[in-house]
């Protein structure tokens, strides 16, 4: 990175300003946070029972997790063939394992769910919005959302004894615009927390160490902004927001 920036600085004349900016930062993670497992434990999400659930994922019903299968693959691969696969190929296989191990959700009794690891949020199963929604829009929706947020705010990691989230937010507290309705109803604040959200429904617990070749980092809200040039005052450390970047450059 230093070399790349150095080359660009060599190109500059005395009238040119160079900006270095990112839309997000990055941080290390070491633990899965299985949100759907937490929702199930607290009665907000219900898993299908009986033959439907059993047929959907025999491995999951036997208690197998993605980590169990990955350990088996390592044991059965003395030639190291898995090293020949690219990282993204391995990640794709891991996602397929998640699908194979997923326990089906009983949508007729589920009021909330986590849809994807990247959203770091929870969707309310709203009637008329979700395919199998059961929560009435309006007061019931707000009551469910408030209850989930209150219980999430008190979530503690048993390994550390510390709060697992730095904040819990309604989507309208963070975002606005025409696509707001597509976003999760609740967002988790995880800055400086070592967790990666998982949507797995087959996890044995809410928290699980990340092992093997799984992802080891995720986005952080604190990004980077730096500038050098004839109109820039050096040595200043600013508190800024990403929306400040465009008008500053202009």
Descriptive overview:
This protein has 250 residues and is an alpha+beta fold. The chain has a domain of 169 residues. It contains nine helices and 13 strands. It has a four-stranded antiparallel sheet. It has a three-stranded mixed sheet with strand order 10-3-11. A hairpin with a 7-residue loop joins strand 4 and strand 5. The longest helix is centred in the middle third of the chain and has 15 residues. The radius of gyration is 22 Å and the shape is elongated. It starts with a helix and ends with a helix. About 10% of the residues have low confidence.
Brief summary of the model shown:
With 250 residues, the chain is an alpha+beta fold. It is built from nine helices and 13 strands. Helices cover 30% and strands 18% of the residues.
């Amino acid at each position: 990175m230093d070399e790349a920036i150095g080359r660009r600085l060599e190109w500059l004349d005395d009238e040119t300003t160079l900006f270095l900016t990112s839309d997000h930062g990055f941080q290390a993670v070491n633990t899965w946070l299985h949100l759907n497992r937490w929702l199930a434990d607290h009665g907000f999400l219900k898993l299908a029972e009986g033959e439907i659930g059993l047929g959907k994922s025999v491995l999951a019903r036997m208690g197998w997790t993605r980590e169990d299968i990955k350990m088996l693959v390592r044991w059965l691969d003395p030639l190291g063939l898995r090293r020949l696969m690219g990282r993204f190929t391995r990640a794709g296989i891991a996602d397929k394992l998640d699908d194979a191990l997923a326990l089906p959700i009983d949508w007729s009794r589920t009021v909330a769910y986590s849809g994807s690891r990247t959203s770091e949020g929870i969707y309310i199963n709203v009637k008329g919005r979700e395919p199998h929604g059961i929560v009435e829009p309006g007061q019931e929706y707000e009551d469910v959302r408030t209850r989930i947020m209150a219980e999430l705010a008190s979530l503690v990691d048993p390994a550390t004894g510390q709060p697992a989230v730095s904040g819990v937010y309604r989507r309208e507290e963070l975002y606005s615009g025409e696509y707001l309705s597509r976003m999760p109803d609740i967002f988790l604040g995880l800055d400086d927390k070592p967790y990666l959200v998982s949507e797995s429904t087959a996890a044995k617990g809410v928290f699980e160490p990340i092992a093997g070749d799984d992802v080891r980092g995720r986005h952080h809200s604190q990004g980077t902004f730096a500038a050098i040039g004839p109109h820039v005052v050096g040595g200043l450390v600013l508190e800024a927001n990403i929306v400040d970047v465009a008008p500053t450059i202009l």
